[in-house]
Amino acid sequence: MIPVTSFANCDVGVFGLARSGLATIRALRAGGAQVYAWDQREAANAAARDEGASIVSFRNWPWERIKALVLSPGVPLTHPAPHDVVRAARDAQVEIIGDVELFGREIRPDQNAAGRAPVVAVTGTNGKSTTTALIGHILSSCGFAAEVGGNIGQPVLSLSRKGGKTIFVIEMSSYQIDLSPTFTPDVSILSNITPDHIDRHGSMEGYVAVKRRLLRQTARDGRVCIGVDDAYSAQIYTQFASDGGVEAIPVSVKKVLGRGVFVVDGILYDAHRQAAVRVMDLADALHLPGTHNWQNAALAYTAVKPYISDTRAIAAAITSFPGLSHRMEDVGRLDRVRFINDSKATNADAAARALVCFPSIYWIAGGKPKEGGIESLKRLFGHIRKAYLIGTAAAEFSATLGDVPHETAGTLEVAVQAAANDALRSSDAAPVVLLSPACASFDQFRDFEHRGDVFRALVADLTGHKREAV
């Protein structure tokens, strides 16, 4: 844990008591703060009470004494409308921040200290979790004490300093960036930008601006690594490359770069400050299939170069990466049928990265729909043998699929059984039952991890009882 001492002997409000909220309470209490906390869930309030917080509805907090509101990133800050707790804080002229901002303020006193633990921050619409985990894996494999958290795994305030070789690797959502006005990474990574979370940022321009903000906050002697294969990110790179500020390094998996890091036909090349040098064949990284994972690998390579000079060691670590749960995760086989858990694909662009990988797909999709639905996936419908639609998006997705064979399954349990039956009866040589929902999970599940865990359990039941699936 990283105790938050910057609010010692002060009153602080914490609203939203999921994992990061509870970790924030522990860190604030360890640093000597008095904490007022609230959540709509009684179980969450009880857990916060056990951590030493005063459980009081935010409407009754002593706002005249509150020094800061630490807001859960899931609570609307600006759009579609500020939450009432946000309005209350603004009326009382109380600053509104998140746990990553608290983390940054705690490590800032060490900013000029020898041996200070560097911070690598990763954002982007898709790929940021895999990139974050891969960076942590490379650093750990090369002798560093990599502390990985944020929007993936542990909350940032649950991480810890572990001596002179600690490097923090933090995944940051756009919501977390919004709540981190002075957070200063040493290395920032932008994987890509496609339309997402428009309801929370008001417009695509607002969403892009938040992603750009993290890069702007990078330490002047650091670096930003930017995937330049989409128009939004390419424009951001151009701005950074021309303003003479922090060093910006472009990364591409679609074209050769005269300067930067790129992948051609699965081969990773480094052309940063040198003629292009072959680094590795990414086909050797068995748990990083597809061009989207090539981008993740190239970004991770670029991010760790300031800390690891041995290119062969980086390549070996990339090769040994075991992959992540809920991201193109192979969770079982039944005869020739593979079951792939890609529950993290919460929008169409993420689902496209899975659909392109397999020729014979029995696709489970749906949930709480994102703007644009699955219109952008029409070019990949030829890979879909049949779709099984769940959640509130089912009717919308059915209309988009048109003549593509599909059925409304309603629930994940029904979808898995139906997809397995159809795949087993098919004549396909290598059928894949793919959960890649292209939707948020909140209509039927707590989060994408819960959805993926349920899928994994259903597959385990099928593979353990083969006769029931046919």
Could you explain how this protein is built, in words?
The chain is α/β, with parallel strands linked by helices and 470 residues long. The chain has 3 domains: 11-97, 3-Layer(aba) Sandwich (Rossmann fold), CATH 3.40.50.720; 102-319, UDP-N-acetylmuramoyl-L-alanine:D-glutamate ligase, CATH 3.40.1190.10; 329-464, Mur ligase, C-terminal domain (Protein-Tyrosine Phosphatase, Chain A), CATH 3.90.190.20. Helix content is 33%, strand content 22%. The protein has 15 helices and 22 strands. The chain has helices at 19-30, 42-50, 84-91, 99-107, 128-141, 174-178, 198-201, 204-216, 231-242, 291-304, 311-319, 348-355, 394-401, 412-425, 448-464; strands at residues 11-15, 34-38, 54-55, 66-71, 95-97, 119-123, 145-150, 166-171, 187-190, 223-227, 247-252, 260-264, 267-271, 277-281, 329-334, 337-341, 361-366, 368-369, 384-390, 406-410, 432-435, 439-440. The strands form 4 sheets. The protein has a 9-stranded mixed sheet with strand order 7-8-6-9-10-11-12-13-14, sandwiched between helices. Strands 15-16-21-17-19-20 form a 6-stranded mixed sheet, sandwiched between helices. Helix 13 links the parallel strand 19 and strand 20 (406-410). The chain starts with 10 loop residues before the first strand and ends in a 6-residue tail after the last helix.
